[in-house]
Write a structure and sequence with these properties.
The protein has about 650 residues and is an alpha/beta fold. A hairpin with a 5-residue loop joins β3 and β4 (about 35-40). α10 (about 385-395) crosses α11 and α13 (about 470-490) runs parallel beside α14. The longest helix has 19 residues, at about 470-490.
């Protein structure tokens, strides 16, 4: 498909290339500091690629494209799909026409510009941490939300890549014990016109304009290429601290929205080549994302754009992996059907650059047959929403029995080929935070100005008896429930994922869809309360335990007597016990190099359990008890057959001595 695409500085000049086979001509539009525009035609056409060399164009130059042709409108300034940096604001205006509408109004005053960048960066001895999947602990974080209120980060760096790399933030992450920071979208994104009209803006970032450009709003140093250097420096610093950088990438749709949305880039270059169109009405988009359009990766243009972007972020930006938003949308064939043996997954699986990085799927989209949990190839891991639902149900007292809970806690062998394919989570960016999960029965999204209609209605949450702020007794139960959920998550087989701020008791006051809340509702609260310190220390203690438990790091599923389930009387759980919908107490004994016994008790009343016989352990030591506010060991040495009293709605972990 011709020369390398984009505007690439080679040290002496800039080579510009854009794929636009349907065009009669392409102009590069250069903008000076005053906004004055100079247009230069690209002279050559090779395999559908318009290209040329601009010897006087250097890094920092702002630019865009104007495309001429039967289906093109040169009045519209278009973003280079391969732009490596973006500068400027997006302002909704009627000149930004939707699909199939044409006029002569210039759109340049209302759209951002691309920026030529210098790719040179001193990576020195940067090394990817290469954390094995068996040791991985993911931490889902937002660059701005994590750092904007951190008192240890200088004010000018808060909310930026440099802020995320600040020693105060790194100390928290490494002290916690996570291994991999999964960043919510950092590709340059825009706010939807409907949000801007309501005085809101897109905070999460799932509305991408440019797949190669780090979001300029997270740069402390500027938007003329400084954002690229700052992002690289952040990655280098996190690597030096032993932390991986995983990017949440949104290749399934773009910020151009549906057919009424703004013409910003791909729509104006070759709409039919890049997007999925409705066969019966090509003026409309086939939308399986719920966001207005769907990028077509079954065809060469969209597939190349995504693959080139992925390779760029690995080779040039040194990231360690990707989490693919609405991943099934990328797998759909030319007919629109999900195809797990199709072109996208095949090309990713064979790519030598991507072979060594982590690949995580959000295994659903909103189209037909879009739920594909467990369906991705062996090298992929997947967000396991069945884990989330099952564990939430158990601790709120709505479990249908132990059988599914047992499968989820031991790696979900009924769903996956290997335990590390299951990314286990209780909370994520979309939905309640951990604190809100135990504080609200219903969503409270009024601040989103959508009449509380947006967001999930079925949250599998329990407010512990009161909606919102509670009495001291209710708040004590909520803290215990938070410890129960974290203990279950971090002592399960699979790859655990924590939501940033959960360890500090962050609340969104019941908002379970804070995508448009760029304010204190979404920012991590670093206030140093005793309750926050206690939960942070609990989380760190659990992760230290997890790190030292070989049974949670095995690459294969447990078999035979590796995992045994016990009734409260100390005997193995009988067959009928697996189906008891009202069962609230169960013991999980795991042995692989060492032995551990985890009692989970979701009932409201204190219960007596009998410790299993000496074939399972000659003695038992209480390591953690979630009835305690602090992660202090129980210190009691118990014998087989002894009775252990477990507080209502709590979990107890015991070490089993087999010697």
């Amino acid at each position: 498909m011709g020369p390398d695409l984009g505007a690439i500085w080679d040290g002496q000049g800039t080579n510009v290339a854009v794929w636009a086979p349907a065009a009669d001509g392409v102009q590069v539009c250069l903008f000076d500091d005053a906004g004055r525009e100079t247009r230069l035609g690209l002279p050559a056409l090779t395999d559908g690629v318009w290209h040329g060399r601009l010897p006087d164009v250097r890094p920092g130059q702002r630019y865009g494209f104007r495309v001429s042709g039967p289906e093109c409108n040169p009045a519209k300034l278009l973003q280079d799909p391969y732009a490596r940096a973006i500068e400027g604001a997006f302002r909704p205006h009627d000149a930004l026409l939707g699909n199939g509408r044409y006029d002569s109004r210039d759109s340049a005053p209302y759209v951002p510009r691309g920026v030529v960048v210098d790719d040179d960066f001193d990576w020195a001895d940067d090394r990817l941490p290469a954390v094995p999947w068996t040791d991985t602990v993911l931490y889902e974080a937002h660059v701005r939300g994590l750092t904007l209120c951190h008192p240890g980060v200088p004010e000018r760096l808060r909310g930026t890549y440099a802020g995320l790399a600040h020693p105060a933030v790194l100390e928290h992450l490494t002290g916690l014990g996570v291994t991999s920071v999964e960043l919510m979208p950092v590709h340059h994104f825009l706010s939807e016109p409907r949000l801007l009209q309501r005085g809101l803006r897109n905070f999460w970032g799932y509305n991408t304009l440019a797949f190669f450009a780090p979001h300029a709003g997270y740069s402390s140093g500027g938007a003329r290429g400084e954002q690229v250097t700052e992002f690289k420096a952040m990655v280098k610093t996190l690597h030096a601290a032993g932390l991986e950088v995983i990017l949440d990438v949104v290749y399934n749709h773009t910020a151009e929205g549906d057919e009424t949305g703004p013409t910003l880039s791909l729509r104006g270059i070759d709409n039919a080549a890049y997007y999925r169109l409705e066969p019966a009405d090509p003026s409309r988009y086939a939308d399986v994302t719920g966001c207005g359009n769907t990028l077509d990766t079954s065809r060469a243009p969209g597939l190349r754009l995504v693959m080139d972007s992925l390779r760029y972020w690995v080779e040039q930006m040194h990231v360690d992996g990707f989490r693919f938003d609405l991943a099934p949308a990328l797998t759909r064939s030319s007919t629109g059907a999900v195809d797990m043996g199709g072109v996208f997954l095949s090309v990713v699986g064979q790519d030598p650059v991507l072979r060594g990085v982590k690949l995580i799927a959000e295994p659903w989209d909103v189209g037909s047959d879009g739920y594909q949990l467990g369906g991705f190839p062996p090298q992929w891991s997947e967000w396991n929403d069945r884990y989330r639902s099952c564990v939430r149900d158990f601790w709120r007292g709505r479990s249908d029995g132990i059988r599914e809970l047992a499968a989820r806690l031991t790696g979900s062998a009924d769903l996956f080929r290997r335990p590390t394919a299951s990314v286990n989570f209780i909370t994520a960016h979309d939905g309640f935070t951990l604190r809100d999960l135990v504080s609200y029965d219903a969503k409270h999204n009024e601040a989103n100005a959508e009449g509380n209609r947006d967001g999930e209605d079925h949250n599998r949450s329990w407010n512990c008896g009161m909606e919102g702020p509670g009495t001291p007794d209710v708040e004590e139960l909520r803290r215990r429930q938070s410890r129960n959920l974290l203990t279950t998550l971090l002592l399960s087989t699979g790859v655990p994922m924590l939501l940033a701020g959960d360890e500090l008791r962050r609340t969104q006051h019941g908002n379970n869809n804070a995508y448009c809340q760029d304010n204190e509702l979404s920012y991590v609260d670093w206030s140093d309360s005793a309750e926050a310190r206690n939960l942070r220390d609990w989380t760190a203690a659990l992760l230290r335990l997890r790190k030292g438990l070989p049974v949670l790091h095995r690459p294969t599923f447990p078999g035979g007597l590796d995992v045994v389930w016990f009734d409260s009387d100390g005997t193995q759980l009988p067959a009928p016990g697996w189906q008891e919908a009202g069962r609230q107490t169960v013991g999980m004994h795991q042995r692989w190099r060492d032995g551990w016994l985890l009692w989970l008790h979701a009932g409201a009343e204190t219960v007596a359990v009998t410790l299993p016989g000496d074939s399972w352990g000659h003695s038992y030591d209480v390591v953690l008890d979630t009835a305690l506010e602090r992660p202090d060991p129980g210190g009691q040495q118990l014998r087989p057959g002894d009775v252990l009293w477990i507080t209502g709605r709590s979990a107890v972990l015991l070490r089993c001595d087999h010697h």
